[in-house]
């Protein structure tokens, strides 16, 4: 039996309401009513265009919890990556992350165009657009071996702002 995709992630957070507000207001996740009766301190969320039951669970461990030090002082998960359909969506997400003070980097990996953000607890995530399989060329494939500066305007001119990403890779052609 093979693994097909990541079904959901669960994150420990210090302030549940603050984290729910961040994922809802900045990334468009919506809470889903599935927290078991009598269970407090958790919220389950679904990504904006997801058909999944839930994509993210947030479990509160209290205000005394420190920010994540994974990769700096401890082992742990570096980041999760969520895919958007178009470069226009990636650009709009960059604007929302910037406005929230949560954009910490961007990268052009050749076949993927990526934003990196941090939630209020310092947990990092990636928002990515994948070049569709039919548009992959030798230049894009060779660029996977480096991390370049992302120029979203140039990428939108090259591929089109409304071109659906991941077609033939993560989405059926």
Distance between the terminal alpha carbons, to the nearest Å? 24 Å
Radius of gyration: 17 Å
The count of helical stretches stands at 4
Average pLDDT score: 92
Fraction of residues in helices? 10-25%
The SS-based structural class is alpha/beta
For the report, how would you describe the main beta sheet? Answer: 4 strands, mixed
Order of helices and strands: EHEEEEHEEEHH
Low-confidence stretches: none
Strand sequence of the main sheet, in spatial order? 1-4-3-2
Shape annotation = globular
Counted beta strands: 8
Strand content: 15-25%
3D structure, described in words:
This protein is an alpha/beta fold and 173 residues long. It has helices spanning 16-25, 87-99, 138-142, 152-159; strands at 9-13, 30-32, 42-46, 56-60, 80-83, 103-108, 112-118, 124-130. The strands form two sheets. A four-stranded mixed sheet has the order 1-4-3-2, covered by helices on one side. The protein has a four-stranded mixed sheet with strand order 5-8-7-6, covered by helices on one side. Helix 2 runs antiparallel to helix 4. The radius of gyration is 17 Å and the shape is globular.
